[in-house]
User: What shape does this take?
Amino acid sequence: MEWFPVVAVTFKVLVLGIGMFFAIKWHYDQGKKGRVKERQEVLRAAGKVAVIFVLALVVLVFLTFALGRKLGMDLSF
Assistant: This one.
C-alpha cells in the first residue's frame, strides 16, 4: 500500500503534463491561423469593455454623491 501514492502522483503528473502540452500546442496553432482578424476582434471587444467600465464608474460616482447629499453629508472639495 505504500507504493500507491507514488504511482498515483506519477500518473497524475504524466497525464496533466501531456494535457498541458497539447493545450499549449493547440492554442499556439490556433494563434497562427487568423491573427489579423482575431486581433481586430479582441481590440474591439476590449474597447467595449473599457467603455462600459468607465460608464459604470461614472454612474457609481454620481450615485454615491447623490446618496451622500440625500443623507446630508458634506461632500464639497
In short: The first helix runs from residue 4 to 33. The radius of gyration is 26 Å. Helices lie at 4-33, 35-70. The mean pLDDT is 89.
